[in-house]
Amino acid sequence: MDDSVVEHTLYVNRSVKVYRIPPRPAAGGHRSGEWRVADEIWTGRLRMISVGSNVEIQLEDVNSGELFAVCPFTPATQAVAVEPAADSSRYFVLRVEDPATKRHAFLGLGFSERGEAFDFNAAMADHARHCQRETIAQTAAAAPDGSSPVGSSVTAAANCDPAFAALYKDPGDLSLKEGQTIRCPQTAQLRWWRLLVTSSWWFWQRPHITY
Questions:
Q1: 133 CB contacts (<8 Å, ≥6 apart)?
Q2: In percent, how much of the chain has pLDDT > 70?
């Protein structure tokens, strides 16, 4: 990773399990139910860090910080690098890579709680959306006057992040046309207050019978 860019920590879990897994089936994806207890090869800390659009999932020893394995990816390659298990939301398959030789292998990753796995997934999704927004903003800033491609970029990204696309939606002409007026309806609170005042006036104005 480029040291000139700020490093961000996206997610940390102090206790995850790593498994040796069988080859991927031809169909249906990896199934964590096939991973035996004897296949557990490591337990330690998981850190997900990002530098720009690049992300690394680092598996480290809790005490020494020694690196056990690294899973690098970008938003474009995330689906290949981090694959959910087909039968459980707590398990994933990581494509780990040797930084020196670039050789890779696939390892199983397990979380103790579903909430931890959800946070892990959410951290990756948040990073992907952040990168998408940065790309659109940079494209808009670099465009010459009168030829901004923001509209087409946002349209292309709307399926991924409609909320962000809505920020750039053209609201049209909001000015008042000739002859148009704005009517401000009375609030419910004001209406009830007027009713109370009217009722009080009527009560004190009516004739009172004394015995």
A1: 161, 164
A2: 71
CA angle 153–154–158, rounded 5-degree value:
125
- Comparing CA positions, the residue from 65, 66, 46, 64 lying closest to residue 56 is 46
Residue 73, φ and ψ in degrees, nearest 5: -165, 170
Our separate counts of H helices and E strands in the chain read: 5, 7
Q: Position of tokens 């598996």?
A: 59
Between residues 155 and 10, the one the model is more confident about: 10
pTM confidence score: 0.66
Tell me what the pLDDT averaged over the chain comes to.
Answer: 81
Contact 27, 117 (CB under 8 A): no
